[in-house]
Amino acid sequence: MDGPPDRAPAPTDLTDAPTNAPADAPADAPDATLGPALLVLPDRVVRGRLRLEGGRIAAITPEGDAEAPASTPGPELEGDYILPGLVDLHTDHIEKHLHPRVTAPWDPLSAALAYDAQVIAAGVTTVFDSLSVGAAIRQPERRDLLFPALDALARAAQLGLFRAEHRLHLRCEISDPDTPILMERALSRPGMAAELAGGVGLVSLMDHAPGDRQSPDMDRWTRRMAENIDVSLVEMIARRDALLERSARLGPSIRAHCAAAALERGLAVMSHDDASAAHVALARAEGATISEFPTTLEAARAATAGGMAVIAGGPNLVRGGSMTGNVAARDLAAEGLLDILASDYVPRSLVDAAFAMAADPGLSQGLPEAVAMVSAAPARAAGLTDRGAIAPGLRADLIRVRRVGGVAHVAEAWREGRRVL
């Protein structure tokens, strides 16, 4: 794998073409040897080879037992890396394929396949498809996308069309009175668990009412939303006030219902957009173990102190800050408050963020630590102990990354030992 940097070399010791076959029978995967390449292990980077057998990592053979010169990517490490397949706990990118324009819905199965292709090309081998359950004001069409999306995802998985492994993350909007019944219908959808790798695995609790959490500046939120949905300021104020009333009146009971329903089924619960220690305390009392996208250092510190995993957005890290002026992912990383990165709205932000973090001289995380934030840590938070790292016995979910002009190019991907990209 030492070819020129502008051209991806041919696969090593693998079948000639990738297969999209479902990975239900790992023994069907061809045994293979990958490398030599720079292997990003949990604690270091080494040049060596991997042996894959029966869909698992059988052995790691360093090349001459010589460790790579550094864990931070630089000119001396230009070439091919093998990383564990990435695990994404939050991406709502499928909604952009289902509704590329507000007035232009797309065929759900076609949308699911286009979305899967983008996910695997970003190096994500396990993805939690994040679907909105209920809606606040913006994008009310999300409420109508839930069940067509669920059916399309299950159908594509049933037909063996997916390259990545798809699981589900239900994003529950607590200001919508329809959220509890929509959630119960989604959780009890026939065939969902069988087709989608166990079905729903994560539930997050969201409140997008302004004045708190993601949007503390109510006036700014009102003006922006009036422009986004093309209504007058007077009309937007009326809608905002109705949303605030629903959030105050219904939010606490809907939030408690959704958390309890998730815990009864053994699902991990995430609290969304925590802005204060009080928000974190509420989430912990409800059984949440993950603080997703905290908006302040105060909330992130409280979550870490309380034993919760903290998630930030990959785009936040790559772009250097939050779109909405909330806490920067880099600041969380610098304080040791960042555990997991999720792609949010840009699937390939995970691989970009891992290399960007490792290359940042102001951060202490090297490449193994940065890669763990997009592989081992999210897998562990979701209860998936069989993947997320390059170690003997774990699933051979792997990606080959070539650094080209400072950009991480995902050249190949394997899921349970089968080449799928």
Automatic annotation (TrEMBL):
Any one Gene Ontology molecular-function term assigned to this protein's record: hydrolase activity, acting on carbon-nitrogen (but not peptide) bonds
Domain Amidohydrolase-related: 81-401
Species, as recorded: Albimonas donghaensis
One record GO biological process: organic phosphonate catabolic process
InterPro entries: Amidohydro-rel (IPR006680), Metal-dep_hydrolase_composite (IPR011059), Metal_Hydrolase (IPR032466), Metallo-dep_Hydrolase (IPR051781), PhnM (IPR012696)
Biased composition (Low complexity): 9-33
Identification of the protein by name: Alpha-D-ribose 1-methylphosphonate 5-triphosphate diphosphatase
Domain of life: Bacteria
SUPFAM superfamilies, sorted: Composite domain of metallo-dependent hydrolases (SSF51338), Metallo-dependent hydrolases (SSF51556)
Residue ranges, annotated region (Disordered): 1-33
